[in-house]
Design brief:
Chain lengths: ~110, ~110
């Protein structure tokens, strides 16, 4: 596809469940970012991949959050033992050159934890 | 205090008005970004700049590195410009974005 895609677009789950959120970056983009946006606020950084490796995971709030990018393309954000406070829109972005290029954002996954 | 602060938080204008949204930051940066977010929609990058001024259509972005301040201007505003405008910075130690809280712009016909 032409842009960054994310699936699912919406996810409703119950407290304590495990969820996976998927991001397909623009083809050829080596840098991939996950952000989280709570209602009425600006996004917050979670994790950044350069290729297959996590170059910066300092934004992950706790060890219930984990992300992978095994082949340097698609990434999955995994949340264990979900809590109501995890409810937010999870945004993925990618860029060709992280130092010089703009980031292209996906439409986001709206996660609701009941 | 947030590292990136925007003002105003909310802005209502009449169609045709000149609009300015301000952004101040307190950290060293390699670039500043202006982004647009429509309700229920994704985020679109408008500008990425590290100095001076950029213009795209009716949008103009300026940055003053010494004052750690940037402005986004919209000339001849239109109702379709209604959206949240977000300022974000790329720090000097990495490419992650740090975002302001956004400015909700409403342009009435």
């Amino acid at each position: 596809g032409a842009g960054v895609s994310q699936t699912p677009s919406n996810k409703v789950t119950e407290k304590g469940k495990y969820v996976e959120l998927r991001c397909d970056p623009i083809s050829g983009h080596t840098a991939l970012y996950w952000y989280r946006q709570s209602l009425g606020q600006g996004p917050e950084f979670l994790i950044y991949f350069q290729g297959t490796g996590a170059a910066d995971d300092s934004g992950l709030p706790n060890d219930r959050f984990f992300a992978v990018r095994p082949e340097g393309s698609v990434s999955t954000l995994k949340i264990q033992r979900t809590e109501r406070g995890d409810s937010a829109v999870y945004l993925c972005a990618s860029s060709l050159n992280p130092d010089t290029d703009t980031q292209y954002f996906g439409p986001g996954t709206r996660l609701t934890v009941l | 205090k947030n590292e990136v602060e925007q003002s105003p938080q909310n802005l209502t204008a009449q169609e045709g008005e000149f609009i300015t949204i301000n952004c101040s930051y307190s950290v060293g940066i390699s670039a500043l970004h202006w982004l647009q977010q429509h309700p229920g929609g994704g985020i679109v990058s408008l500008f990425m700049l590290s100095s001076g001024k950029k213009k795209h259509g009716r949008l103009i972005a300026t940055i003053n590195i010494q004052e750690k301040h940037s402005s986004l201007h919209i000339t001849a505003s239109h109702p379709r410009d209604s959206a949240v405008y977000i300022c974000a910075v790329t720090g000097t130690s990495g490419s992650r974005l740090t975002f302001g809280e956004g400015t909700q712009l409403t342009v009435n016909p």
